[in-house]
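For homework, think about our next protein:
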Amino acid sequence: MRFMVPVVTATALLAFSPMGNVRAETPEEWVKLGARVHGGFGAFIPVGIKIGEDAMKRLNAKPRELAVTYYSGEGVPCPCSVDGVMLAVSASPGQGSVRVEAEKSPPGTFAVVVIRPRKGGDGLRYTVPMSVIPKLGQINKTIQDPLARYSAVTALGEFFTVEPVK
């Protein structure tokens, strides 16, 4: 239940935005939108943003064309990264395009995110190793400025693996 508050808030922002389609273009916009939806901007959110942006590019998708299924790792404090994915691809639980599963991701993983076209077809499976947690924790602990947190996560490079899903 505690995971539903950010998801419901994000759904409301996506559904009632005067722009109709919430998209960020700059790091500053990602930080502002992520903080508004999530209630703060920690290092886990840009993890999701990076995954969502990568999926949009690889799947040649436009906003609202993808569906997200998120599996959080055992012992991971929250599925905060799904908020970033959701924002990046303009998915919404209210539209049935985001699911946070109760089932955990495999041992040794921070998260597994499966992203597919909403209309069907092949998708992608993103796996984030548990080894990224200490780095994200250090960023959250030592960097207070949200924009600097975003930049620090981006500077980590590609911290996930991607494989096709049929």
